[in-house]
Amino acid sequence: xxxxxxxxxxxxxxxxxxxxxxxxxxxxxxxxxxxxxxVESPPVNLSDTHPNQHDMHSDPRREIIxxxxxxxxxxxxxxxxxxxxxxxxxxTLLSPTKVGGITETALLYGPPxxxxxxxxxxxxxxxxxxxxxxxxxVNCWDDHTKSRVLYSVLKSLVGQTAxxxxxxxxxxxxxxxxxxxxEPTIIFLDEADKLVDEGVLRDLYEIEPVRLLLAxxxxxxxxxxxxxxxxxxxxxAQDVEFEKYHDGQLVEILEDRxxxxxxxxxxxxxEALAGIADAGSRDARKAIATLRNxxxxxxxxxxxxxxxxxxxxxxxxxxxxxxxxxxxxLTASQTLxxxxxxxxxxxxxxxxxxxxxxxxxxxxxxxxxxxxxTTKFPQYNLVTIREEExxxxxxxxxxxxxxxx
Length: 405
Fold this sequence. Notes:
Layout: E1 2-4, H1 61-64, E2 79-81, H2 84-93, E3 105-109, H3 116-131, E4 135-139, H4 146-158, H5 170-180, E5 185-190, H6 199-205, E6 210-216, H7 219-223, H8 228-234, E7 238-241, H9 247-261, H10 270-279, H11 284-301, H12 308-328, H13 332-344, H14 349-358, H15 366-379, E8 383-386, E9 393-396, H16 398-404
Parallel strand pairs: 3-6, 3-7, 4-5, 5-6
Antiparallel strand pairs: 1-2, 8-9
Pfam families: AAA_22 (PF13401)
Domain AAA+ ATPase: 102-236
Family: Belongs to the CDC6/cdc18 family.
């Protein structure tokens, strides 16, 4: 199923929503307009190395790839495949026209690379455009403290602000956010399970016009550690689950990206595309990064096409690229835990914590570090768990080790 997003005009029956079959003989229901019609769509992320402006016309890559922009990290695609049900659910929860208005709190969860961010971004932009509802998006992977979240929310609401992000007290920023909100406003906290102070959820929830939208990889990691009085309200949020893509779905996503990038025909065969999807391990972000790196190798080495060995190298590079991005966004305390693992090798959580505690003045509690080791780091392919050991041990993945070396 193919779903076109925000650059096409409307979203659902309440926002112009429509279903489209991938079979050309099936026609969409007449009540659903064109925003889900089949169109040629773009890919994410191709290369971190863009040629300088003056070299663009002489760069041989332009002969193979017509539009590199659609392959870059963070590109928002024109079309969203295989997420129609999730879009319908989000559109209903966030509709200001439904009985009761916009849902007070909603929670999206699912593994990395399952389309949570791009799907939600598309729905929010449609709601803002069609209904004039203010929306704010904060990436808690980058802004993981209370002050950084509140500053990001404030800046999104009012534009430039005289407050200093690092020096202004969180209480002052919270008061400024309250003053800036005088109508129902949707605040989307992406990667909410990366927050180091869940108290900001309570602070935002208690602002009467705020409607909270939280996204994370694991539901429990987002709301499981909230204090009881906060959990009693936020912990009962409406859920929208995003499941992993299947290989066939990833192939279609990659096909869209190849088409939008105007990649020269015959560079990526159907067999190679299936291999790239398989390398993605049902993670769209990894699959797209693998495609990007495979095309880079073809260009830089003058190969005729993407081959199996090229895919293997591209997958390894993709894992390192993703690991680098994730490690660079960790807190200093989280990064130190990884450095401890790098230095001492595979170890139990107790051994890791003892060494970590000796290296830092204000350590996180043992329970928090154990949570990073058992959930957060494995989810992001930074740590593997050796369950065959008793007690179980933790060690860095090859990708994480390559970055920390």
